[in-house]
Amino acid sequence: MRALLIDPRTGGISGDMLAAALADLTGSAAPLERLSAAIAALPGCVEFSVRLEEADGGVRARRLSFKVREKPAGSDGDLAAALAEVAASVGLTAWGRERSERILSDLLAAERRFHPTGFSRHAIASADTIFDILAPLLLIEEAGLAGCQVHATPPALGGGLIRTGGGTVGGPAPAALEICAAHRIPVAESPLSMELTTPTGAALLANLAVVADRFPAMTPIRTGYGAGTRPNGAGANILRVVECEMSGLVEERIVLLETNLDDISGEVVAHALGRLLEEGAIDVFVTPAIGKKNRPVQVISVITDRERYARLLTVLMEETGTLGVRVREEPRLVADRRRETVEVAVGGRTFPVRVKTSEACGRVIAVKPEYEDMRQIARELGVTLREVAREVERGLPSPGRGGQQE
């Protein structure tokens, strides 16, 4: 399965860097020329042109050179309308248009956080912002990578002094950090005293990629390198992209909470497990072990995600009285899962049953009806669960046919 890796952990990411890297990957600048012509035709844009050129540095990379002259920008709505107009004129698909709207929404939300009385024209309201959003999306579509998995490493944000519309502040750029915080994107340190990840770059990552602290298992096919427009003297502000082949499994990030208990009753453990599942844990299990002084202990393990782990950690400590919890973030590969609700006949009546179909490497590996639904049918009809399961399995449609998508 084709996939795309974005690697900003050293040089950071901006819209123009990602566009340059993708153009280097594909070997084509034609989409950029088409996009710049559409932007130049916007009312208020006096001049807009883009040239793809070789960048100086230790690694061969491409850089975009801009010529921009425009009249003062209008409102948030004007910018959104101009973005939509250009996206339609260059033939961006629904996939690209949807993501462009989400990227702009993130940028506007971050700007309002720091400029409550109005967005910063210096930072966001300009023709090159439209280019920075649309160019990477257009290049991804032209390369046939739209809809493929996109992975990324944590972006280097940079430091030093950052110029904003409201003055100079210490790095990293506040709006970029705000977007990373809103999407819980892990970030990387950098010794460079300059802005490396721009707000647009952060918004692109947030809406395109799954960010993890390592490369996924992959087979590289081709690479591309894009350089920033501001040289830093070290040649390190370079973004790498990799087109690759990956297995049909889906990689996701989980948080694992663990604690050892040696002075707690089975009833308290059972109640804690129920509470954790009620609060949204993906899975909870208990493992018997031998602890210090050869005492038997119970290890409670909780699988969750970044959004819920803090709440579940609190529940775990409150319910068990443990004084410490181990926290690890780990990747896991899972089958792609599709959930449908199908109508099945049991005992002469029709019931809705949720069915989970799992696929890996292009083939169906499991079709599993929801246990709770079958248990409810068994109770309602006064029959055994095994009887219901046999009837449900006989009535299941072929994978991908029939049913109503949840």
Automatic annotation (TrEMBL):
It comes from the Archaea. InterPro entries: Ni_insertion (IPR002822). Keywords: Nickel. The keyword DNA damage does not apply. PANTHER family: NICKEL INSERTION PROTEIN-RELATED (PTHR36566), PYRIDINIUM-3,5-BISTHIOCARBOXYLIC ACID MONONUCLEOTIDE NICKEL INSERTION PROTEIN (PTHR36566:SF1). This is Nickel pincer cofactor biosynthesis protein LarC. It comes from Methanofollis tationis.
